[in-house]
Design brief:
With about 230 residues, this protein is mainly α. About 70% of the residues lie in helices and about 5% in strands.
Length: about 230
């Protein structure tokens, strides 16, 4: 059973590592964000107007690249903190801002635009507010760490990792829903910009979504291990 728990934790880190490899790029390639920025911006404006007629979203845009001197140092930089290289946040003044590494695949920029587009809908706005609520985040963080352990302790035997994973993932529901909505909108923005995603790009979008399962999966594996010791 320990092998399954360890395997779950290691598998959870693979999408995050895959993303870090992409986000740590220092060289551009044909599908880099920098070459598609204008097309995606225009497609974003059209998409926002389509889902909320008359709406327009202004945002600040910042380009960042890893500073590490070696490839491994740059990878670690992106692995430890991906926000400078692909993120969308709300600044203190209430204006959205996007940070992006201009060398990364354009699907990453489309994904961040997808976040801003999703927030123009009632559902997307509600989900994002849940995600950004500090008290809710704290409560869900606590439940993520405790529910899997309780489930493992209450269920007989050691074959209860699936229950622990389900409970941990449920605790992260607002984050996963917010990321899923951004991914859906990113696909639509890409299509409207005449930049249909390839199979590899769809894999990157999926990997980005899966990377957010890393925390609940690791929490599930850890909580399940502790719970089974009490079982």
């Amino acid at each position: 059973m320990i092998g399954a728990q360890l395997g779950t934790a290691l598998a959870a880190l693979l999408p995050r590592a895959y993303n870090a490899r992409e986000l740590s790029r220092t060289q551009r390639f044909p599908k880099s964000t920098k070459y598609a920025e204008r097309k995606l911006d225009k497609a974003f404006d059209k998409h926002v107007d389509d889902i909320k007629p008359g709406a327009k979203v202004d945002f600040d845009y910042f380009e960042n690249t890893p500073k590490g001197a070696t490839e491994s140092a740059r990878f670690k930089e992106a692995f430890d903190d991906s926000l400078p290289f692909a993120s969308s946040t709300m600044a203190d003044g209430g204006k959205p801002e996007i940070q992006i590494n201009p060398n990364v695949d354009r699907v990453y920029y489309a994904h961040e635009l997808g976040h801003l587009a999703a927030q123009q809908t009632d559902v997307g706005h509600f989900v994002n507010k849940l995600r950004q609520n500090p008290k809710l985040a704290q409560a869900m963080g606590i439940s993520m760490m405790t529910l899997p352990g309780f489930a493992a302790a209450l269920e007989e035997g050691d074959n209860d990792l699936d229950t622990s994973i389900a409970l941990a993932a449920l605790s992260s529901a607002p984050v996963l829903a917010d990321e899923a909505l951004a991914t859906i909108n990113a696909q639509q923005i890409m299509n409207k910009g005449g930049l249909r995603t390839s199979l590899g790009q769809r894999g990157k979008l999926a990997g980005g979504l899966l990377s957010y399962l890393a925390t609940p999966l690791i929490a599930a594996a850890a909580g399940n291990f502790v719970g089974n010791q009490l079982d």
